Amino acid sequence: MAAPKDKVPCLDAELAAFVQGGVSILAASRVAKRSPAIARAVGCRVSPNRRQITLLVASSQAAAFLEGIRSTRAIATVFSQPSTHRTIQFKGTDAELAPPQESDRDLIAAYTRAFCEELAPLGHHPEQIRAVLSCESDDYVAVTFSISTAYSQTPGPRAGEPLVA
């Protein structure tokens, strides 16, 4: 179900903190024949007006996803907290690629620590998580998009409900 046209997707302060915390971040775009291309993000920042999200991805691990962004500018993202299964989905149609900001290195390090802390009680060793998320520091690319639709995707009776202001 899409958000009503007269409502703007909502990213309030609590939700902004959630997506910038130690949650799993997956992003998808599409390539030829509408095939999905998926990437894992290693951090996220939210614009001051909370209408845009920037994901940081390793370009060497996300070539098809990045090609999908270049060719369609369409993106869908899922932020999920493994310990609770709380899941939020955002979509956008104006995604753009850019070099990361200098401060993004600290953001990636903070995200990695927070994600390790989230997964450790579930039996995942921090070294495993760091290995999955690591890449060369000059390999990251920023993907910024405006939120066009937002949904709760937490399993249960409210899954699929749009989030609106």
Order of helices and strands: HEEEHEEEHHEE
Our measurement of the CA-to-CA distance between the termini, rounded to an integer number of angstroms, reads: 16 Å
Major β-sheet annotation? 8 strands, antiparallel
Q: Largest sheet, order of strands side by side?
A: 6-7-3-2-1-4-5-8
The geometry reads as: globular
Low-confidence stretches: 1-5
Structural class: alpha+beta
Report the strand count: 8
Strand content: 25-35%
Q: Helix tally?
A: 4
Give the averaged pLDDT, no decimals.
Answer: 91
C-alpha Rg, in Å?
15 Å
Helical residue percent? 10-25%
Describe the protein's architecture and organization.
This protein has 165 residues and is α+β, with helices and mostly antiparallel strands. 25% of the residues lie in helices and 31% in strands. Strand 4 (75-80) and strand 5 (87-92) form a beta hairpin.
Primary descriptors:
8 strands, 165 residues, 8-stranded antiparallel beta sheet, single chain, alpha+beta
Summarize it.
The protein is of the alpha+beta class and 165 residues long. It is built from 4 helices and 8 strands. A hairpin with a 5-residue loop joins strand 2 and strand 3 (52-58).
What is the secondary structure topology, with strand pairs?
Layout: H1 13-19, E1 24-30, E2 36-46, E3 52-58, H2 63-72, E4 75-80, E5 87-92, E6 96-98, H3 104-119, H4 126-133, E7 140-146, E8 149-152
Helix pairs in contact: 3-4
